[in-house]
Amino acid sequence: MTDSLKKLLKLSALGAAMAVVVGCASTADDGLTLEDVNAKADEALSTANQARTDAAEANRTATSAQNRANRNSERIDELNQKIDRMFEESMMK
Fold first, then answer.
1. N or C: which end of the chain has fewer CB within 10 A?
2. Residues 6+ away with beta carbon under 8 Å from 27
3. What local confidence, expressed as pLDDT, does residue 66 receive?
4. pTM, whole model, 2 decimals?
């Protein structure tokens, strides 16, 4: 996973946690306690961790697909060369 993606995930988790805290601090007494805020922050962290896991899986899948595409491209090049050789041989006869 790239560093920028890691930073983005960390900032997203921090932003979500801060939004919960600031939102709770800026409203009238809505009955939220510190435990509620901590629970919401933990939930945000859990969501960010799941997003990181999903991003890592997507990265592995993309890398695998790129590797297969590269192998297929090499095979196509080899096949084209073989066809060209066969054509040249048939033209010489």
1. C
2. none
3. 96
4. 0.52
